[in-house]
Amino acid sequence: MHRSSRASRLALACAALTLGTAFAPPGAGTGDGEPSAVFVQNNGADGNEIVAYARAYDGTLTRRGVHPTGGDGAALDGAVADDLASQGSLTHDPGHGLLYAVNAGSDTLTVFRVHGTRLERLQVISSGGDFPVSVTAHGDHVYVLNALGGGSIQGFAYASGRLTALPRTHRDLGLDPAAAPQFLNTPGQIGFTPDGSGLLVTTKANGDRVLHYRIDAYGRPAARPVVTELPDAVPFGFTFDRGGRLVLAEAGPEAVAVFDITPDGGLRRVSERATGGTATCWVARSGHLFYASSAGSDTVGVLRGERSGNLELRATTPTEAGPVDAAASADGRHLYVQTGVASTVEAFAIGRDGSLTRVGSVPVPGGDGGEGIAVV
Predict the structure, then answer these.
(1) Interatomic CA distance for residues 273 and 312, integer angstroms
(2) Predicted confidence (pLDDT) per residue in 138-150, tens digit
(3) Exposed end of the chain (fewer CB within 10 Å): N or C?
(4) Are 139 and 130 in contact (CB under 8 A)?
C-alpha cells in the first residue's frame, strides 16, 4: 500500500469518530489506607491538568481531584482522538513515587509527587525541544520525546526531588518536519528497554522506523541510533513482553508485532497478528496479555503472548468513542482505557482468559483529545 493511500485511510478513520456518552458509577475506597489511583491527562490547551480517580476493589473509579500541571497542552494538525498522536505522555515512576507529565503547548515537563490519589507538583522544567509528547523513566534517568522540528530526545537526571537536564544527551531525530499529515508523521513514543540499556523511539509514517539508542553508564545515548526500517508499518505505541521482546502497535497493517532486540541493536520480527480494528496505535500489557486500542473502530483487541513470542488474538472488545492509551493495574485484575473522543476512562475487569468485562466509565473533564494514563 502506498504511503499516501495509507495516510488517507487512517486520517479518514480518525475523522469518522463520533462523540460518545459517559456513565459514572459510584466509587469506593479499597478499605485499607489510601486507595489506589488512576491518573489521566486531559492535555488542555488553556491549562493542562491531571485528573485523579480513586480505584475501588471492583475496579470502579471515583474522581478525587484535578491537578494543574503548570503548563499547556496542544494539538497536532489532523489529530482527532489523540491530540498528541503518541503513547506515554503520562508516566509513573514507582521507584521514586513520581508522576511525569508532558506539556506540549509550553514545551515543558511537570514532575509530581504521588500521595495516594493526591498529587504534589514539585517542578516544571523545559523539555529541551519543541512539542513534547512522550516520557520514560528508568532508575535515576528520565527521557522526553519532542515531536516537532524534526523530533528530538532529551535526558534528565533525578536527585533530591528534582530533575536536571543531563549534558550531552540531546539528540535530533532528523525527521522530515514538513511531512503531512502532521499527526501521522511525528514520532510516537520513547521508552527504555526493560534493563535500561537502551532507548527506543518510533517515527510512525515519517520513515516507518524504530530507533534504538544505546545508553552508557552515565545515562547518555549513543551519538547515532541503530535504525530498523519497517516499510508501511507506521510504528506507533509499544511495550515489552516478559522476555524483554518489543511488542509494537503497527497502524499501517492494523496489527501488533513482536520483535527480538538483536545483539547489534536491531529488531528481528518474531510474529505479527492483526487486531481486526482500525487505527491500531496503542498497546498496553498485563502479564502475558496485550491490549491494543483501535481508535477508528472503537475497539480493544485482546492478544495473548506465548513464551515463543507468538501472539494469539483472543477477542475484540467494543469501547466508547476513540480509545487511545490504556493501563492495567499491577494485580492484573483491571484495565483502564482512555477515550479521547468520548472523553472518558472506561474500566474493565480482566478475566482469567484475558477477556474484558466493562465495570464502569467516568468522564474526564476537558478530556476531548486527551492522552496519558497511569495506574498507581
Answers:
(1) 7
(2) 999 999 999 999 9
(3) N
(4) no
